[in-house]
Design a protein that fits this description.
Blueprint (H helix, E strand, L loop, with lengths): L8 E3 L20 E3 L2 E3 L4 E4 L25 E2 L2 E4 L5 E9 L5 E11 L4 E6 L25 E2 L2 E4 L5 E9 L5 E11 L4 E6 L25 E2 L2 E4 L5 E4 L1 E4 L5 E4 L1
Antiparallel strand pairs: 1-4, 2-3, 5-7, 6-7, 7-8, 8-9, 10-12, 11-12, 12-13, 13-14, 15-18, 16-17, 18-19
Length: 250
């Protein structure tokens, strides 16, 4: 499944995760003259390998280093913090030993120094989630290995993660509906809602009416948006409906 993957880090105008590569991309808004012509969209290779299927180089947890680099991966999650650092979590990937599976490693990249730091999670693939106490941040908490989850950032700068396909608290593999919050100031995760076990049916409640008991069913490959009030909007995905049927949701 990793044919064509690589972990090049490229600089153009926007940050993008590409299927078959791990890359940071920025397209320059400024024109540049080359051979008498005006061009835009100039790429710069910033780090990582130019060949496929590379293992991660983790270094010391919490310590940035020039040699550190996440392994080749796809369908990972990403965020940008208020200081302009880039964050990356999980995906289908190569771990530190070139083992291929699902990861729950959290990385921070500083574009000023071009250095990665491994922040939390495991350097090995297919890890169970450590949920701790619902609503309580803790250093030991970590979402299980997964890919194709949802990620967004709130107005306070905290990172959010929902669902995906991965491992639950018991080491079982399937779709998830757990909601997590990560505070980049404390580097701690908190399990906020949803189940710590896979393959959960959705609890829909009354159309248009919020309720504490409501929760989307387990899913991966969904779409999401955030509005100006920090509300998350979610649509579809490959998941489980209110009657425990599996399929495409809308």
């Amino acid at each position: 499944m990793f044919k064509g993957l690589h972990k090049s880090i490229l600089r153009v105008m926007f940050v993008a995760q590409l299927v078959a590569s791990l890359s940071f991309a920025f397209i320059s808004p400024h024109a540049s003259a080359q051979s008498g012509s005006t061009t835009t969209g100039v790429w710069t290779w910033m780090g990582g390998s130019s060949t496929i299927n590379q293992p991660g180089v983790y270094g010391t947890k919490g310590t940035p280093a020039a040699a550190n680099i996440p392994g080749s991966r796809y369908s990972a999650l990403s965020w940008t913090d208020s200081s302009g650092n880039f964050w990356l979590f999980g995906g289908c990937a190569s771990d530190t030993n070139s083992g291929v599976g699902y990861l729950n490693d959290l990385w921070k990249f500083n574009p000023s120094t071009n250095e990665w730091a491994w922040i939390s999670g495991s350097s090995k693939y297919n890890q169970s989630g450590i949920y701790g106490t619902l609503g309580t941040p803790a250093a030991a908490n970590i979402p299980g290995s997964r890919f194709s989850a949802l990620s967004w950032t709130d107005s306070s700068g905290d990172f959010w993660l929902f669902g995906g396909y991965g491992y639950d608290a018991n080491g079982k593999l399937d779709r998830l509906n757990d909601l997590w919050e990560f505070n980049p100031s404390t580097n701690e995760w908190a399990w906020i809602s949803g189940s710590s076990t896979v393959a959960q049916s959705g609890i829909y409640g009354t159309l248009g009416t919020p309720a504490n008991a409501n929760i989307p069913g387990s899913r991966a490959y969904a779409m999401s948006w955030t509005d100006s009030s920090d509300n998350l909007w979610l649509f579809g995905g490959a998941g489980i409906d209110a009657k425990s049927n599996s399929g495409d949701l809308h």
